[in-house]
Amino acid sequence: RLPLLAGSQEQDGFSARDRRGLDGSVMAPQAQTDRMAALISVYEKSVEQMLQHENQRERMTSLIFLASAAIMTGLSAVDFNTHYWFFGLFLVYFGWFGRNFSLKHYERSVYHISVITMVLEQIDHQNKASHPQDMGIVELMGQVGEKHRAGEFIYAEGRRGRSDLIASMSKRRLHMFWAWMNTSIMVSGLALTGYMLFYHPSVQKLLG
Question: DSSP state, 20?
Answer without folding.
Answer: E
